[in-house]
Amino acid sequence: MTEDRPAALAVEGVVAAVGPLKILQDVSLVVNAGEAVAVLGANGAGKTTLLRTIAGLNIPREGTIRLHGEAIEGLPAHRITRAGIGHVPSGRELFPRLSVGDHLELGGRFSLPARRALLRSRVLDMFAVLRERIGQRAGTLSGGEQQMLAIARALMTDPRVLLLDEPSMGLAPKIVLSVFETFPILREQGVAILLAEQSLSLGLAAADRAYVMDHGRIVLSGTAAELASDSRVADTYLGR
Ligand SMILES: Nc1ncnc2c1ncn2[C@@H]1O[C@H](COP(=O)(O)OP(=O)(O)OP(=O)(O)O)[C@@H](O)[C@H]1O
Ligand SMILES: [Mg+2]
After folding, report:
1. What is the pLDDT of residue 95?
2. Nearest CA residue ID for atom 26, ligand 1
3. Per residue in 16-38, pLDDT tens?
């Protein structure tokens, strides 16, 4: 790399498998601080596996994953969280019987008390509805509120890179927009966003650049504008 400052997130040549099955093949991508980048691909393309591998929930067989220049691949997931990668998993993975406040506590458990309090007031300013529901059990929240809580929990880890796995899933378009509206605020704080999306239109609307995955490989990449007018993008979906 010729730049002075390394990328917020740099994935290079990653091969990953789940059991005996090779799922990711030679995946490389870069996300800079303050940038929002989408990983697009049809059902089963490998998006979730990629995000889980970056988050340390799946160990890559080959390749490197760098966070601001420091190699993190192979570290246990909690170390990767502490290093600055926040993960909003597919399907949210909340604890239905724990309260909104409990989830924020869990997210903030690695931070010192003063920092934790600052993060908490920041996420509650961002998601005002969660402040109103602070004592409510997660299982009783609406889908949109649950997604906001999943993001808020990840933000409580004080991430420099935020991985979001299909936050639009199961949400009405209006609610999706209100979730995506938080991205500019995070980007201004210098957070790098990597968004996995099955929906081309949503992914390209929310990101500056995107990578298109097919069968575990990156097959196309470019700016959102370039990809929006590239017929090969839709072909990767239709070709399955
Ligand atoms: N635990 C697992 N065991 C076996 N195969 C798996 C496992 N996890 C993922 N796969 C396979 O890996 C491939 C990629 O799956 P992955 O969930 O990463 O795709 P995705 O792009 O996130 O799809 P979706 O849009 O449906 O969320 C699929 O063929 C899937 O069947
Ligand atoms: Mg997925």
Report:
1. 97
2. 43
3. 998 888 999 999 999 999 999 99
Q: Which residues of the chain have pLDDT under 50?
A: 1
Locate 230 and state its tokens.
């590239």
Phi, psi of 156 (to 5 degrees): -65, -15
Q: Indicate the fold that domain 1-82+159-240 takes in CATH.
A: Rossmann fold (3.40.50)
Q: What is the pLDDT of residues 158-173, one digit of tens each?
A: 999 999 999 999 898 8
Q: Rounded distance, CA 112 to CA 2, Å?
A: 36
Mutual angle of helices 143-155 and 173-180, in 10-degree steps = 20
Tell me which DSSP letter residue 99 carries: B
Question: What are the boundaries of each domain within the chain?
Answer: 1-82+159-240, 85-158
The phi, psi pair for 34, rounded to 5°, reads 80, 5
How many angstroms is it from 134 CA to the middle of ligand 2? 29
Beta carbons of 84 and 110 less than 8 angstroms apart: no
Q: How long a stretch of residues is the chain? A: 240
Tell me the residue type at 184: P
**Average of per-residue pLDDT values in the chain:** 94
Distance between CA 234 and CA 240 in Å, rounded?
11
- Centre of ligand 2 from the C-alpha of residue 20, in Å: 19
**Tally of CB atoms within 10 A around 18:** 12
